[in-house]
Design a protein that fits this description.
The complex is a heterodimer of chains A (about 350) and B (about 300).
Chain A lengths: L25 H35 L1 H7 L2 H4 L3 E2 L4 E2 L2 H32 L2 H16 L2 H26 L5 H10 L9 H26 L2 H9 L4 H30 L2 H6 L22 H9 L6 H37 L2
Antiparallel strand pairs in A: 1-2
Chain B lengths: L11 H40 L5 H5 L13 H31 L3 H14 L3 H19 L7 H25 L3 H9 L4 H12 L1 H16 L3 H4 L10 E4 L2 E4 L8 H9 L4 H28 L4 H4 L1
Antiparallel strand pairs in B: 1-2
Helix pairs in contact in B: 1-12, 3-6, 3-9, 3-11, 4-6, 5-6, 6-9, 7-8, 9-12, 11-12
The chains are: A mainly alpha (about 350), B mainly alpha (about 300).
């Protein structure tokens, strides 16, 4: 308890004899110690939960770790009938869908953050910020619902069908077609999952980036303007370099969200392996799996024993991946904010 | 570089180019934020246009009716969501608020480590919390008593864990806004630290703390992934009597609004899909009311100072 500076209870009887001090009550003598202890224990719950998560998940997936070892993450087979489990396609699906999401979300988020912190007139800032934050308040399952009944039909008729009916002539276009647009445009696909994920991470990246841009000292901008730079030159050549690592941190926070997002992705990605032998396909039109969607989808039909254990191991892998990404992101954001504050 | 002896040539064309580039990029930034807001508008528009018409009194008072979906409702899901929020608060509120107080009072390396890991825990996907609670609660109970395990308790536990970091962070942020001089005055009068916190800081930050709680509730109200592993869902009320009063059976499976929406949205029956939209409208209304009320209460305090 040495970390909490607590006033020692001042109950010294060293006073003239005539004055009679009331005896210090229990709450004065020990209240602060109890207070310190209780709040300390409450804050320890954070570590407790993280450690408990790691221990419990490793225990639950023990059988699977023991049986498959590293082949669990390098194998592409997930076969309940033969009890062989490998999650390579799910790892790929998670990374690919998150990458697609960031590809769309990063420019939009950084653009919005710049607009909100630098360009927007004062009266517009608070409502716009609020509206973009509301995007984060909408639950994943509602995005999924909207995705299934609004976005998918639209994507199918206006994006996927026209593209798959086009006949490219030169070689390069053909290659692009083969890699990214092969397969039938049924609807549920990597593209849909990536799009919905991008919508879901935009508010997170925007909020953190905006906070970081706001923390950058005015003097930096004023110096740049004084040298005759335009507003965009100031933003791109003075503000961005200053905020670089913080923005990278913000993007990684978004990545952390995208990696673990479950419901909306489960509803839109199709939950089918693409028709390739490895279960890995770069095609945007092919269905797929992410780790989270596979876990949510296969869980209801899982048999006890090694099957459940293999599913728990997906949770374990996801736990470690997101914890590493989040720690790195937080450190980047933390040190940028510190640097920025130090440079003031 | 500019030398006094040479005349500086004005690069007029370059200036125009730079101005144009400036205009284009700034416009793109504006369009980016317009795009984000447009998406929000699209989501809300379709929610209302597809779901609003299916909401009626039955929706709030009836159980699902698979013969005639129109006459049925989702009363058990709404009730389940409220029960789960209550259970989650029992775990999340005390730990979250006390932890937040600790983060405010304590300085030093350990305190910043707590702060750091609070953020990290916040970023752990909800589905991981779900499978964790399944492994720690549902599976062992199911082993002891086959056929049981999925319960309101397990769901509340999972949501409670998710609530802790959110409440910790907001509590700390809000307690920080209470002027330090007030605490000094109280301590100067001889009050102990806990008395200062209880009688001076907390009362003046009450509104803010409640805001934090509402935001946390809004966040977990829409969580579905952990519930898949913990509550199973059902289509009726499970109650038992304690001293003649009906109380919810917390050791039995329970339903929740987001879970019901998920089940109906992935169903093939168009009537059920219609009900999913209606459920989504109710859920989003609950969440928006919570978060808008929270923001309105602290407007000019938290938002601007951030």
């Amino acid at each position: 308890m040495t970390t909490t500076p607590i006033n020692a209870p001042a109950a010294s009887p060293a006073s003239p004899k005539k004055l009679v001090f009331p005896k210090a009550s229990f709450s004065i003598l020990y209240g602060d110690r109890i207070y310190a202890a209780i709040t300390f224990l409450a804050s320890l719950s954070i570590f407790g939960i993280i450690v408990w998560l790691a221990v419990q998940l490793s225990q639950a997936s023990g059988a699977s770790i023991h049986k498959f070892g590293w082949s669990y993450i390098t194998q592409s087979n997930w076969d309940e009938t033969k009890d062989i489990y490998g999650i390579l396609p799910y790892i790929f699906g998670t990374l690919y869908s998150s990458f697609l999401a960031l590809l769309i979300a990063v420019p939009i988020s950084i653009g919005s953050a710049v607009f909100l912190s630098e360009l927007a007139p004062k009266w517009l800032r608070t409502p716009m910020t609020f509206l973009i934050e509301l995007l984060a308040a909408i639950p994943s399952v509602v995005y999924g619902l909207w995705g299934i009944f609004v976005m998918l039909p639209w994507l199918k008729t206006h994006v996927m069908n026209p593209i798959s009916h086009a006949h490219p002539h030169n070689k390069f276009a053909l290659w692009i077609f083969d890699v990214f647009f092969s397969g039938n445009p049924y609807g549920p696909s990597m593209l849909a999952a990536g799009l919905i994920l991008s919508i879901m991470v935009i508010p997170f990246i925007t909020a953190v980036t905006r906070d970081i841009l706001k923390a950058i000292p005015r003097s930096q901008r004023e110096g740049s303007y004084a040298l005759g730079a335009t507003q965009w030159e100031t933003i791109s050549q003075v503000v961005f370099p200053y905020a670089k690592s913080g923005i990278v941190g913000a993007v990684m926070l978004g990545l952390g969200r995208a990696l673990g997002e479950t419901m909306a992705v489960t509803m839109l990605i199709g939950n089918q392996s693409p028709g390739t032998p490895t279960g890995i396909s770069f095609s945007l039109f092919q269905p797929g799996y992410t780790m989270a969607s596979a876990l949510a989808n296969k869980f209801t039909e899982a048999a006890q024993g090694i099957n459940t254990s293999a599913l728990a191991e997906i949770g374990l892998v996801l736990f470690f991946v997101t914890i590493v990404v989040n720690m790195a992101a937080r450190l980047l954001v933390f040190y940028t904010a510190k640097d920025v504050a130090g440079g003031k | 570089m500019v030398n006094n002896t040479t005349t500086v040539k004005p690069h007029r064309s370059n200036v125009t180019q730079r101005k144009i580039a400036n205009r284009i990029m700034l416009t793109l930034c504006m369009l980016a934020s317009v795009a984000a807001v447009t998406v929000l508008g699209l989501v809300l528009f379709f929610l209302i246009s597809k779901g609003f018409s299916s909401i009626n009194v039955n929706f709030f008072t009836q159980l699902p009716n698979h013969v005639d979906e129109k006459a049925g409702g989702m009363s058990q899901s709404i009730y389940g969501t409220l029960v789960l929020l209550g259970l989650a608060s029992v775990i999340g509120l005390p730990l979250g608020i006390l932890g937040g107080i600790y983060q405010l009072e304590a300085k030093g390396k350990f305190a910043s480590a707590v702060r750091f890991f609070t953020d990290v825990l916040n970023g752990i996907p909800s589905i991981v919390i779900g499978i964790f609670v399944y492994a720690v609660w549902v599976a062992p109970i199911a082993k002891l008593h086959p056929g049981t395990g999925y319960s309101a308790f397990a769901g509340g536990f999972a949501l409670g864990i998710m609530m802790i970091p959110t409440i910790m962070r907001t509590t700390e942020e809000i307690l920080k806004l209470v002027p330090f001089s007030m605490r000094e005055a109280s301590l100067g009068l001889g009050a102990t630290r806990w008395r200062t916190m209880w009688s001076v800081v907390l009362p003046s930050a009450r509104g803010g703390v409640i805001t934090g709680i509402m935001l946390a509730l809004a966040r977990i109200a829409g969580e579905t992934a952990p519930l898949l592993f913990t509550i199973l869902g059902n289509e009726f009320f499970v109650t038992h009597k304690v001293y003649g009063i009906k109380v919810p059976t917390l050791t039995a499976p329970i339903d929740a609004l987001p879970l019901r929406i998920y089940n109906y949205a992935t169903a093939v029956d168009p009537e059920q899909q219609r009900m999913a939209w209606a459920g989504a409208v109710v859920l989003i209304t609950l969440i928006l009311v919570l978060s808008i009320a929270a923001r309105a209460a602290t407007r000019g305090k938290v938002l601007e100072e951030k």
